[in-house]
Amino acid sequence: MGKTTTLLLFLFFTLHLKTSLSKDLCHKDDKNTLLKIKKSLNNPYNIISWDPKDDCCTWVSVECGDATVNHRVTSLDISGDKVSAQIPPEVGDLPYLQTLIFRKLSNLTGPIQPTIAKLKYLRFLRLSWTNLTGAIPDFLGQLKDLEYIDLSYNDLSGSIPSSLALLPKLGYLELSRNKLTGPIPESFGSFPGEVPDLFLSHNQLSGSIPKSLGKLDFYRIDLSRNKLKGDASMLFGTNKKTWIIDISRNMFQFDISKVKVAKTVNLLDLNHNGITGSIPVQWTQLSLQSFNVSYNRLCGPIPKGGDFHRFDAYAYLHNKCLCGAPLQRCK
């Protein structure tokens, strides 16, 4: 092979390599969709750097998958920006999206975008700290890969869809700080996979807790600041591995005298209910970082021992006839 031929081959492969390296990994359809999303959001500051000349897999707030998904866009995170718009319908045109986040966008309004129903690979959905309104859509229960849902700090209203309990991989459900009404769905007692962390606080939920929830072993459950009533004792049990349980500021009425709590419980908040009975001695076995039973109808002596001595009178005030340190002595 002559020197001229060798040189030509070298130049050819060098040019081919350079072309391959400069080629966009980003799929052209995804790039076009992202540019439409940027326009729909009125070119917010955090993504103003998105340039059609650049590989969209290098854009801020965007992540692409590997070669197994042809480098399609798998994550979109628009957070902490001055956006005055609704969730663009084009988000549904990113077919390989696994993570979708719109967070801390105080002027993001309108409903949860219906085209999200098209995102069959979606695993992580966070639409929080915005001003979204309307109902939580039933179609979320059809997105079978969903593992994490956070719709907190919005103005969502209506009832909680029972279809959310159909999600086989759901491990985290956060619906706090909305205007949700109605009962906790009966279906929430039969999640098909692992029992998710459940956060429903600061809503207007009413009715009784489904008894079926007593069969579940919640690691973290927060039902505080609602209008729930009746018995909540089924949420407790020494055979469970619960870490956090907060049912404060509701209208629960049950006797806690024989309620046993898992030794794993670290936060136990029952304040502002109509709970009766006396504090069980078994609770002295708990390692509590936070504890509050104030504003109930409890009676009898506060058990001695355990972590109870660590909490001041604030944790026990305004009960019917609770006594003993740190309250007044029992007669």
UniProtKB/TrEMBL annotation:
<dbReference type="Pfam" id="PF13855">
    <property type="entry name" value="LRR_8"/>
</dbReference>
<protein>
    <submittedName>
        <fullName>Polygalacturonase inhibitor 2</fullName>
    </submittedName>
</protein>
<dbReference type="InterPro" id="IPR032675">
    <property type="entry name" value="LRR_dom_sf"/>
</dbReference>
<keyword id="KW-0677">Repeat</keyword>
<dbReference type="InterPro" id="IPR051848">
    <property type="entry name" value="PGIP"/>
</dbReference>
<keyword id="KW-0732">Signal</keyword>
<feature type="domain" description="Leucine-rich repeat-containing N-terminal plant-type">
    <location>
        <begin position="27"/>
        <end position="64"/>
    </location>
</feature>
<dbReference type="InterPro" id="IPR001611">
    <property type="entry name" value="Leu-rich_rpt"/>
</dbReference>
<dbReference type="Pfam" id="PF00560">
    <property type="entry name" value="LRR_1"/>
</dbReference>
<feature type="signal peptide">
    <location>
        <begin position="1"/>
        <end position="22"/>
    </location>
</feature>
<keyword id="KW-0433">Leucine-rich repeat</keyword>
<dbReference type="Pfam" id="PF08263">
    <property type="entry name" value="LRRNT_2"/>
</dbReference>
<dbReference type="InterPro" id="IPR013210">
    <property type="entry name" value="LRR_N_plant-typ"/>
</dbReference>
<comment type="similarity">
    <text>Belongs to the polygalacturonase-inhibiting protein family.</text>
</comment>
